[in-house]
Amino acid sequence: MVAALTRRFGDLDIAEEAAAEAFAAAVERWPAGGVPPNPGAWLTTTAVRKAIDRIRREHKRDDKHREARMPHDDTPAEPPGAIDDDRLRLIFTCCHPALATQTRVALTLRMVGGLTVPEIARAFLVAESAMGQRITRAKAKIKAARVPYRIPSAEDLPARVHGVLAVLFLVFNEGYLASGPGTDPVRHDLTAEAIRLTRLTRALMPRDAEVAGLLALMLLTEARRPARISASGELVALDEQDRGAWDATLIAEGHHLVRERLAAAAAGVAPGRYQILAAINAVHTSARDIRDTDWSQILALYDQLVRLDPSPIVALNRAVAVAELDGPEVALAIVDRLAEALAGYHAYHATRADLLRRLGRGQQSRAAYDRAIELAGNTGETAYLTRRRDQLR
Asked: Where are stretches of biased composition, namely Basic and acidic residues (predicted)?
């Protein structure tokens, strides 16, 4: 609805508030008058009226006001064959190069991904107030710059696709491991939508290697979803998952995409971040048992990734592979060097707790588990960490 309203009115604030007011009206009226035969149409019509009312209240006698009063033509502006998807249009609008990359991503997660400001703030490891201000300023800049609501031309796509992929990746991540305490541990609605939009982006840019890499990464990760949550709602770690429950069709498609990218790499085309992450997941999903995992190959891929993205989180994930090859003590030394950068990140403390557990340092491990549990918002992950902590002597 927000995407469709943005297409009509060209204003993110008006679209978001009108949609919210329409749902509020439904909550008020439907219990008494009953659900209308076509709820979606009722909501859309109500939202359009709310938007027009707001424009009138603000006395905006400009082109926007006149457009709102005119019969609306829903015919796509793009030529035949172009992708007509309101959400994808909105993603490309929010990912305009006039905005800083992190601001583009944050705004799009809010407008398209439906994530709350606290969820986005956790994804960026920043304060909620700072993230709220960043999103507000981004909407104002788009409005002031009159950024058009459309899928850009082929010449404009390369300048925007980096931000689009970052958004889709984070939307998928929020679904893969939801950060909100009041949500399901895994949100299939978000992972499915991220995959759908990535497929559309790949149709727009079939030769872009990173688009293919991100799609492969999503498919190989989504393939493990049936085995990731236990019957009691607890997160199931990779080494404990029933690999027979993994989706073989998604794995086959993901592996095919990875092999395509490997062939390109062999021809001298260096892989990007998403391609390397997809290759790491391909190694994991190729092993029939956790003991068959080729950790040396995974570490080599992380070494490549660190050169592209020397972030503390990549270093943390690399340390997990180091632990399998060189032992937990070597890995712990790497992890401890990340203490300042990742002090508020629950996965840092969870990783450290596991390494300390493997070294027999129970008291320190318990303290690290306690901190990880305190910071984790995902209910399934909290249950898993609590069980692991309680198993300590």
From this structure: 57-75
DSSP string, 16-76: HHHHHHHHHHHHHHHHHH---SSHHHHHHHHHHHHHHHHHHHTT--SHHHHHHHSPPP---
Query: DSSP character for 273?
Result: H
Output the six-digit token pair for 339: 């203490």
β-strand partners of 229 = 235
Of the candidates 228, 304, 124, the one whose C-alpha atom is nearest the C-alpha of residue 318 is 304
112: left (phi over 0), alpha (psi -120 to 50) or beta: alpha
User: Which SS3 state, helix, strand or coil, does residue 235 take?
Assistant: strand
This prediction has a pTM of 0.80
**End-to-end Cα, the chain, rounded Å:** 53
Domain 311-393: CATH superfamily is Tetratricopeptide repeat domain (1.25.40.10)
CA dihedral 166, 172, 175, 181 (to 10 degrees): -20
Q: What is the mean pLDDT of the chain?
A: 87
pLDDT score of 71: 44
Per-residue pLDDT of 334-355, as tens digits, reads 999 999 999 999 999 999 999 9
